[in-house]
């Protein structure tokens, strides 16, 4: 397995995840080998050529001290339970960029057992939760490409997250399970996104958001 790859995800899902701006990562738990794409490094504010991250110990140096233990804990019992129930791993924590900026991120992953090596692997996506368009009441920018309405730039964090999982083919129920929300809450955020983007329906809203690089 390569130490670093720009394509931890093959095929269609990789393209969708790149469009939404998520950082892709692939961690071989048993071998302690971490492979990440360029967007993942960009979220951390790092140059992969100058400061490669190949193991959890490398990554820990960039996590907020108060969050590092929880964010990098490898609990064998918890991992086995996730695999048995086909449940996603999810974690929110803070990272610290080289310039001192603290950024809150969410990491969501699928836990699998590699058929070739027998190793446990976590394959996931890290997204920023902090952003200039996260707060309510912000002014809207000019309409974005792809038919986005006047409220396109004012998508809230939860609306973006729900659209991301919708774009990956997840139902409202599945998205609710991944994000730890109720199905009704997910539907609420998706309907709000449809209205903000001036979309005809939820799928149209996801298309608009991807084209406009809002997710």
**Alpha-carbon distance between the termini?**
30 Å
Helical proportion, percent range: 25-40%
The DSSP helix count reads 9
Mean pLDDT: 77
Write down the secondary-structure element order.
HEEHHHHEEEHHHH
Largest sheet: 5 strands, antiparallel
Low-confidence stretches: 1-12, 131-152
Strand order of the largest sheet: 2-1-5-4-3
Question: How many beta-strand elements?
Answer: 5
Shape label = globular
- Tell me the structural class: alpha+beta
Approximately how much beta-strand content do the residues carry?
15-25%
Rg of Cα set: 18 Å
Protein name: PAS domain-containing protein
Biased composition (Low complexity): 137-152
GO molecular function: DNA binding
Pfam family, one: PAS_3
Provide an overview of this structure.
The chain is α+β, with helices and mostly antiparallel strands and 215 residues long. It has helices at 11-20, 38-44, 56-60, 68-71, 76-85, 157-167, 172-179, 183-197, 202-211, and strands at 23-28, 33-36, 89-96, 102-113, 120-128. Strands 2-1-5-4-3 form a five-stranded antiparallel sheet. Strand 4 (102-113) and strand 5 (120-128) form a beta hairpin. The radius of gyration is 18 Å and the shape is globular. Residues 148-213 form the HTH luxR-type domain. Keywords: DNA-binding, Transcription, Transcription regulation.
């Amino acid at each position: 397995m390569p130490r670093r790859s720009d394509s931890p995800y093959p095929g269609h899902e990789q393209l969708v995840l790149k469009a939404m701006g998520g950082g892709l990562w692939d961690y071989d738990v048993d071998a302690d080998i971490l492979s990440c794409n360029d967007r993942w490094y960009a979220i951390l504010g790092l140059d992969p050529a100058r400061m490669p991250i190949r193991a959890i110990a490398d990554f820990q140096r960039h996590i907020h001290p108060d969050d590092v233990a929880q964010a990098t804990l490898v609990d064998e019992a918890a991992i086995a339970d996730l695999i048995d129930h086909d449940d996603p791993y999810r974690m929110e924590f803070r990272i610290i960029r080289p310039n001192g900026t603290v950024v809150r991120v969410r990491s969501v992953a699928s836990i699998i057992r590699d058929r070739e090596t027998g190793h446990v692997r976590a394959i996931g996506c890290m997204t920023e939760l902090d952003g200039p368009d996260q707060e309510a009441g912000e002014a809207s920018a000019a309409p974005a490409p792809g038919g986005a309405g006047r409220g396109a730039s004012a998508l809230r964090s939860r609306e973006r997250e729900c659209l991301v999982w919708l774009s990956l083919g997840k139902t409202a129920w599945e998205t609710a399970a991944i994000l730890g929300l109720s199905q009704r809450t997910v539907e609420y955020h998706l309907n709000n996104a449809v209205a903000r983007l001036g979309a005809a329906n939820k799928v149209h809203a996801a298309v608009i958001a991807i084209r406009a690089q809002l997710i």
